[in-house]
Amino acid sequence: MAHTVEPAPAREVRPLEDTEAAPAPRRRGLPTPYLLIAPALILLAIVLLWPIVQMVWYSLTSFTTRNLLPNQPGPTWNDFAHYQKLLTDPTFWTILRNTVVVCVLMVGITMVLGTLVGLLLHKLPKWFSGFVALGMMLAWATPALSASLVFRWLFLPERGLVNVMLDRMPDWLVGGGWLEYNWFLEPLSLFSILVTVIVWQSFPFVAVSVLAGLKSIPHELYEAARMDGAGAWKAFWNVTFPMLRPLFALLLVLQVIWDLRVFTQLYILANSFQNKDVYLLSYYIYQQGFSANPANYGMGSAIAVVMTVMILAVTAYYLRIMIRQGETR
Amino acid sequence: MTAIDNSAGSTAREHAARERTGDGSAGAAGATGGAAGATGGAAGAGGDGAGRVYRRSPLRRLRRLPLYLAGVAVFLFSVFPVYWMVITAFKPVGEIFTRDQTLLPQAPTLAHFDRVLNGQLIPGVNFWQFLANSLFVTVSAVAMGAFLSLLAAVAVARFRFRLRTAFVILLMVIQMVPMEAMIISIFINFRQLSDLSGVQLLGNLSGLLIVYTAVSLPITIMMLRGFVAAVPKELEEAAAIDGAGSWTVFWRILMPLVAPGLVAASIFAFITAWNEFIVALTFLGRSTEDYTLPLTLSYYFGRFGTEWGPIMAASTLLTIPVMIFFLFVQRRMVSGLTMGAVKG
Question: Phi-psi category of A10—alpha, beta or left, where left has phi over 0 and alpha has psi -120 to 50?
Answer without folding.
Answer: alpha
